[in-house]
Specification:
Blueprint lengths: L1 H20 L3 H14 L4 H13 L3 H14 L4 H13 L3 H14 L4 H13 L3 H14 L4 H13 L3 H14 L4 H13 L3 H14 L4 H20 L3 H21 L4 H13 L3 H14 L4 H13 L3 H14 L4 H7 L2
Helix pairs in contact: 1-2, 2-3, 3-4, 4-5, 5-6, 6-7, 7-8, 8-9, 9-10, 10-11, 11-12, 11-13, 12-13, 13-14, 13-15, 14-15, 15-16, 16-17, 17-18, 18-19
């Protein structure tokens, strides 16, 4: 009898595998269910069942199957990896990271999985952790232009411009014509008042890729800074010329990215510097329409509204600033006067 039972189980497994191999997945799943009713700890049956659900993109039953596999075999690295993939597809990213870390604990040099983990961390906006992974990957792949550039963008976003600059220089060392890196480097050194080199890099970026809105933004920003410097040394004519150049650049950037609140804000600042208060107010209103939570835009709108003679509306703007940013001392001061 025991021998007959052995052959029966073997026949059931063979039948299930035949259905699976021929693409008859419904019949295969029925067969595996029958096997697991008889032998609930049959690891092979659970794994085949999980793989069918995964093939059919039936992620919830696949996840349940992988959980059972890992209860039976906690060190099954392949199961951890595949469960991580399923969790990503279900949008359960934090749980996916746990699964991927199990795999990386056994295989820390798995480049493909490190890349996958970096993508998840980017989605979760955990840039500091992404940067750690990039540093590991770039040791293995030091000429990866895309990764060096993304590293620079993240460092800029974290306010680490000096480190970001090193990344952009790495990009340009590999690809001297990289429009994105030219623009980003140009902006960073422009904020350090290295105007000649900054303008040269920004113009190269624009010439290489005229549709790069960030290059136009950088040009607008740096010419605006140069205009402010001219004002500080009482060179008003040169300042107005610089502001006009800045305004033209922001106009080009907005043609390419019309829904960017920062571009509208910066355009408003330059229009105000040029004495075009009504146009500046329109620009700040547009910035606020896109991003109503910008304390800076509300503050600048308040200043212009007051300048145009509407004190009550200006006070409303300053109150809005305090609502958004209670630490905004300039707005608090304006409310007292």
């Amino acid at each position: 009898m025991k021998l007959n039972g052995f052959f029966k189980k073997k026949d059931l497994m063979q039948e299930a595998q035949d259905y699976k191999n021929s693409g008859k997945y419904d019949r295969a799943l029925e067969s595996y269910a029958n096997i697991l009713n008889i032998e609930p700890k049959n690891l092979k049956a659970w794994y085949d069942k999980a793989s069918i659900h995964l093939t059919l993109e039936q992620y919830l039953p696949a996840l349940d199957a992988y959980k059972t596999i890992l209860e039976l075999d906690p060190g099954n690295i392949k199961a951890w990896h595949e469960m991580g993939f399923i969790l990503v597809n279900l949008g359960r990213l934090e749980e996916a990271l746990v699964a991927y870390d199990k795999v990386l604990g056994a295989d820390p040099g798995n480049m493909k999985l490190l890349n996958e983990k970096a993508i998840i961390l980017k989605e979760l906006k955990k840039d500091s952790e992404v940067l750690k992974i990039y540093d590991l990957l770039l040791v293995k792949d030091p000429n990866n232009v895309k990764m060096w550039f993304e590293r620079g963008l993240m460092l800029s976003g974290l306010g680490k411009d000096a480190d970001a600059l090193l990344s952009y220089e790495k990009v340009l060392g590999i690809d001297p014509g990289h429009a994105g890196a030219l623009a980003r480097k140009g902006l960073i050194i422009g904020t350090k008042r290295q105007y000649a080199e900054s303008f040269d890099l920004l113009e190269k970026s624009i010439k290489s890729e005229p549709s790069n809105w960030n290059a136009w933004y950088g040009k607008g920003k740096v010419w605006g800074l140069k205009g402010n410097d001219f004002i500080s040394i009482d060179r008003k004519y040169d300042a107005m010329k610089a502001f006009e150049t800045s305004l033209g650049a922001y106009g080009k950037a907005l043609e390419l990215k019309p829904d960017d609140p920062v571009l509208w804000f910066e355009k408003g600042v330059i229009l105000n510097n040029l004495g075009k208060a009504n146009e500046a107010l329109e620009a700040f209103d547009k910035s606020i329409e896109i991003n109503p939570d910008s304390a800076n835009a509300w503050y600048e709108k308040g200043l212009i509204t007051k300048e145009l003679g509407s004190d009550a509306d200006a006070q409303d703007c300053f109150r809005k600033v305090m609502e958004l940013d209670p630490s905004h001392t300039l707005a608090r001061h304006k409310l007292k006067h």
